[in-house]
Request: fold
Amino acid sequence: MRLAIWSVTRGAGKLAKVYGRILETQVYTLKKFQIEDTFQMENFTETLEKEFNSYDGHIFIMATGIVIRKISTLIKSKDIDPAVVVIDEGANFVISLLSGHLGGANELANIIGNRLNLVPIITTSSDVTGKIAVDTLSQKLNGELESLEKAKNVTSLIVDGKNVELKLPKNVFLENKERCAEGVIIVSNREKLETIQIYPKNLILGVGCKRGTSKEHILAGIKLAMSNHNLSMKSIKKISTVDIKADEIGLIECCKELNKELVIISREDIKKVESQFKGSDFVKKQIGVSCVSEPCALLASKGNGKFLEQKYVYDGMTISIYEEKIYDE
Reply:
């Protein structure tokens, strides 16, 4: 987690320098105080606006009122805003102020409290009542929420002590061993039920394509392959390909549009596993390995799951889909 510590007084700046050394973070102080080994700002507001989205979390050593006013125009949504915590200049408390669940501010406040001997202040209802919020569960599963509004509605039921059931895929296990496949039957005498889906990011795509294949064509192929297996695009964790395709513009642009990491697999690594798959002599003569999409998907994964799509062929492309286990037994 990339963190920054901010201060606007001399005392807070000296404290920030000490904390920055312990937490190994970037420290911002005002230039007029000339505090060495810190980034000395000419203007706090301008620097904060410029750097706010460059960090995963921010630690402010100042009054909460100042922080609220300064970040009010910078925050966008709880699913993308960085974590924000506040420490008082007297070094007594660390307060989780923004993005407590998805941004990790609650966890950050607890970590800082333990390391700096401060009292963590957590105000989110689910945490103070010892209950788990839906967005926290999504984060723990490394998943993506279907809807923030639905997450809020279901979490409110949990906080209110209502009975909310958790249904999980068959390769995710809880202590009660409850499982769920591709459908859920809900038996209830309630007319309205609050539900929400969390999409686990556990699908690794291996892609092979002809030189010059467009972004649009690659996207179309991926969407068809996913649709054939009733899989959500939201569950794609990463996309992988062979090293000779590392500069393939269409594939690079496709990954940028989907906001997915493009993992490059070397042909030397592919050679170690290609015997597991049905290859092509023609491909072997062209690039030195007999197959691309399957070994790339396997090698970019944790290797603890299975192929849902061995090789989907789509007009000059091959797409393989590997499903990782969400939880290792």
Summary: The chain is about 35% helix and 20% strand.
